[in-house]
Structure formats: structure tokens, C-alpha cells
Amino acid sequence: MEVFSDGVLAIVITIMVLELHEPTGASFAALKQVAPTFVAYLLSYAYVGIYWNNHHHLVAALKQPRGKFCGPTSFGSFGCP
């Protein structure tokens, strides 16, 4: 389950990077045009990183998966290991 969630988050970060575009020129004005997208990417990357870190610590804290934990956290990963 932990490896699956790592893979999903890696795909999410990769898809986010695809939306970043290079500036049209070498001027400060051209850089200002892409700045909002870049700031949004940085905030999204931080959010995904915090989510991954919390999920990693939650899984590490479990010695054995329990039924109440398996359902919500592994909804798309075909069940608990």
C-alpha cells in the first residue's frame, strides 16, 4: 500500500510539472507572466509533500493493518496487503 501511494503521488507531481511553461522571453516582464503559475505549482508541491509525509508516518505507525484502516486508505489500491 505504501509503495502504491508513493507511485500515485509521483504521478501527481509529474502531471503538475507538465503545466509549467517557460517564459516567452528573457525579460523580467516575461518572467512575471509565468510567476502565478510557478507560485501555484510550489504551493501544490508543498501540499502534496505534506500529504505524502503524513501518509508515510501513518503507515509506519501501524504494526498490522486493521479493517477500519484498510477501507478508507486503500480505496483504489485493491485492498490491504
Automatic annotation (TrEMBL):
Membrane topology type: Multi-pass membrane protein
Name of the protein in question: Integral membrane protein
InterPro entries: TMEM175-like
Lineage: Bacteria, Bacillati, Bacillota, Bacilli, Lactobacillales
Main location: membrane
Catalyzed reaction equations: K(+)(in) = K(+)(out)
Location(s), subcellular: Membrane
Coiled-coil residue spans: none
Alphabetical UniProt keywords: Ion channel, Ion transport, Membrane, Potassium, Potassium channel, Potassium transport, Transmembrane, Transmembrane helix, Transport
